[in-house]
Amino acid sequence: MTSFERLQNRMVGNPVDRPPNFDIMMQFATRHIDKPLRDYYLDHRVLVQANMAMLNDFQLDIVQAISDPYREAFDLGLEVSFPEQSLPISTSPLLREPSDLARLTTVDPVNGRRMHDRLEAIRLFREKVGGCTPIMGWVEGALAEAADLRGVSTLMLDLFERPDWVIELLEFCCEQAILFARAQMAAGADIIGLGDAVASQVSPAWYRLYALPYERRIFQAVKNSGGIARLHICGDTTLILHEMATSGADIVDIDWMVDYQKAAEISDNDGPAICGNFDPVKIMLQGSPEQVREAVINCLSIGGDKNLSAAGCEIPINTPYSNLHAQTAALSEYYSMA
Amino acid sequence: MSEFVEQLALCVERGKVNRESLYPPDLHGQDGTDELAKQALEQGLKPDTILEGCILGMDRIGAKFSENKAFVPELLMAAKAMTAAMTHLKPFFQSGAVKRKGTFVIGTVAGDLHDIGKNLVAMVVEGGGFEVIDLGTNVTTAKFLASIEEHPGCSVGMSALLTTTMVNMEGTIKAIKEKYPETLVLVGGAPVTKQYADKIGADGYSPDPQGAVAILNKKVA
Ligand code: B12
Q: Do B71 and A86 touch (CB under 8 A)?
């Protein structure tokens, strides 16, 4: 069974040889191939090489062009620096004043330095594993992108003080996300992930107003291009689980703070597959292989027959290899128990 | 408790900054923390009562936050309303009529851009009567040291949200303690624990801003 077949079967609840491993790997993958982090963010060849190593060495069932939140923002003009051995750093917002929004125009991803690099990554993935391993592209959700451009705390206050301006900004970000999602689909992506990290920090009422409508529109564009939609909101999303299920996502990621059993309710009756959700730090980074095994099997057994295996968020850079191997082994073991 | 303190606390809790502010809609056109503080001083109320109202309001919204009844934006808005009232206290702080309890330098450590929690801590500590110097995100050891140099006797707070940046705090604390052994250093952020704080030589840890204020208060008591 190829990873692609494994995913397709699993997403509709059909039998698989083992549930797909959908861990999010970025920094860890880079360290594994012994390259500077900076190269992973700036050079698609390094990103692809790191992902190929994850397939071969840890039996992942996905290759992923996700890297950091600032692909779109950089091309829109945000200042970002790339230290050799750390995450990209953005320290001053692009939209210092609300009036700065009038100067922003969407960028065709083909012409954007960092968006284009992601398109190249997807093309290279296509050449190497197209049709066998699901290829995931990535966009920032409108609310997350707005926060990247304006600064989270400022944006939160804007939501109280100039809600109409924020809507205008969200419309802009949504349009940019749709352009980027379509371009990634055209380059050969099978899945588009949408990251909306800050959505876990606002009230459910605000999630419905300021995040969900845009997630829906972006996912509609993904679906129209024949793609699989994956929603990723880090943090505690307990209060918005049922709304997230209406975003149009086929896969909803669940972070570790959420009760996975409760999350599984959204999978019932044609709902999305859920993906998660053991603690990336306490279990994957700091736990023992036996704890990883237990956590993986526990999630699989309560997540419903469509759920995919992954830590709640990115696998930390210094995760011991033995813990990742324990996850792989647990996935096969789970199948043999069934 | 005086009616004034109660009224100011309500405006802080609800994030009502001034008469013009659109938020919250049900208080539209009414005085906010800005006007209330100004009037209070004109009427000869003690500046301390303003502080009292601010602290009470922040306590209330903080409690709602812990119960999942208020969220980060509501907390930030309350903090903004609090700041609007505190601005009127500036001259009293400067003249020494109202004493700030001390100076608190805070920043998110090098490599880390998460600033929501750091901002909340900064605002609540300010509400607690301290002068706050916010160094922003991605703050290097050199920057912390320079700020301590500039504010003799200050306390320092470091925030880290990533397991990879949390480890940077140890070196920074060492450097601070070498040059300014008297400096009180607090650490926090989601992955940080009391045990970790002890291990790296921090003087204090708190999972929330209120705890940070309590530790700082102890120092000045
Ligand atoms: C919002 C968010 C973001 C936003 C940040 C926006 C911003 N300007 O802050 C964005 C999208 C930019 C982001 C980026 C990333 N993030 Co992020 N993010 C989050 C999220 C969802 C919420 C964090 C938050 O603001 N919480 C709310 C505040 C109020 O809580 P808090 O910070 O803990 O603060 C409280 C206390 O800790 C305490 N406190 C805080 N500081 C201090 C200081 C002192 C002195 C004291 C006493 C107390 C104290 O008081 C605060 C109030 O109660 C968390 C998930 C989560 N729920 O924790 C992930 C999370 C922190 N992010 C994570 C990751 C991995 C990343 C990225 C590396 C992803 C990537 N590969 O691109 C990047 C890193 C960017 C960088 N260089 O820093 C991981 C960290 C894992 C780990 N432990 O190492 C988390 C935990 C998600 C996860 N489950 O894996 N993220």
A: no
